[in-house]
Amino acid sequence: MSATALTSPDYIALAGDIKRWARELGFAEAGITGTHLGDDELHLQRWLDDGHHGEMEYMARHGSKRSRPAELEPGTLRVISVRMDYVPPGTRNAWDVINDPSTGYVARYALGRDYHKLMRNRLQKLAERIHAAIGDFGYRAYVDSAPVLEKALARNAGIGWIGKHTVLINRRAGSYFFLGELYTDLPLPSDEPASAHCGSCRRCIDICPTQAIVAPYRLDARRCISYLTIELKGSIPEELRAPMGNRIFGCDDCQLICPWNKFAQEAVEPDFAPRHSLDGAKLVELFDWSEDEFLKRTEGMAIRRTGYEGWLRNIAVALGNAPHSAEVLLALQARAEHPSAIVREHVAWALARQSSS
Predict the structure, then answer these.
(1) 186 annotated to a ligand binding site
(2) Where are the transmembrane segments (predicted)?
(3) Which among 40, 50, 136, 144 is annotated as catalytic?
């Protein structure tokens, strides 16, 4: 990276412009921070040493690049952190879906278009505006696309604090938002880090269906429903299947119970609107999707990450937790001889649950 503008910019004014341009591009907020993440590096290493990352080997693969931005992108002096709200107006109430065991619960962030490319394109446009103002400069845009401690950087940029559930919380907007970063070699003025405001509250810890938040600010991903339904590619541990309820892709309980989300802002991005009624679709209908239907209907969506086998596995568990009915039994029996051993195993478990209920 190397800034090559002919004259030195007014970096204080530029920082203000960057935040304004970010809002004009659809981001809810932007902040700026330096690259020091020493305490967060230690926290990450303890988490890895405890094995709390489960099968997410990529969390350990990149060494210190995750906590040292200048090692990931040489020349980085500052990080521009942005956030974008993701729950659009008209989305079915999350608790109503969770409390209706005939439906499948999909984490609210995954109901519409996958945010990665959308936000990366917006960050690229932000970089182009900076370039138009000052000339060539060094930068790299990231949205979950590289080893980045995005929550720690966002906290240091003043966007929010990391809550006891390990999710970032903003005093004015709760926690329903995505994060993205623009690493840059510009010596911009840094914002003040956000202060923490969880206090003595532990609602997120107490409500977690699988008790994955093993202590304040410590999440054992191996027990987390988001990990189990998305990252885990094999069998879901039997003792965690019943607590999963009807959650088939991700989980929002720790955010839903958080009192700060009374300030959550609705998304202004129309592409985040729910597709295929996935904000409350019937489990038996979703379970009936062929692989071609799954691939077609989830095109451009985060749900693709679980794969078709994982999709059926997750729904089989939810059907096992559903009230006994002939419709559920027929749906499960139709998949009892599925070619995938993983699917067959979870269907057999679900059929046994249905038979005993």
Answers:
(1) no
(2) none
(3) 144
